[in-house]
Every structure is written in structure tokens, then in C-alpha cells.
Amino acid sequence: MIDPQRANPPVIDGVVLTPAQKKSQRERSIAIALALGVLVILFFAVTMVKGAGVLVRPM
What keyword terms does UniProt attach to this protein (predicted)? Predict the structure, then answer.
């Protein structure tokens, strides 16, 4: 017979998230990823608008 306690993955530091906490964490991670993506696109767009002059500068 399979012990239900052993069927679960090991718990690190005794922290077990509830399904609501897992959902909240996933939504927060998605929001951070979207914000980072928007920032990357914004930097790219600004670089394109400024043109190749951005790359020509004295060392």
C-alpha cells in the first residue's frame, strides 16, 4: 500500500503553499514577465527612433 505522506514531493523548510497562494504567485510572476517584456520593447523602440547615431560615439 502507498503511504500518502510519501506520495507528495519533499517540502523545503516546511513551507506548503495553498492553491490560492500558488495562483497568486503565478499571476504575480506573469505580471512581472509582462512588465519586463514591455520594458525591453520600449528600450528597443527608443533605440530604433534615435537611429544608428546611438552606436556612433567616442570611446
Answer: Membrane, Transmembrane, Transmembrane helix
Q: What are phi and psi of 20, to 5 degrees?
A: -65, -40
Joined together, the cell numbers standing for residue 8 give 507528495
Where b means 16+ CB within 10 Å and e means fewer, 39-57 reads eeeeeeeeeeeeeeeeeee
- The one-letter amino acid code at 13 reads D
Q: How many residues does the chain have?
A: 59
Verdict on whether the full-model pTM lies above 0.70: no
Note the pLDDT tens digit of each residue in 16-58. Answer: 889 999 999 999 999 999 999 999 999 998 888 887 676 677 7
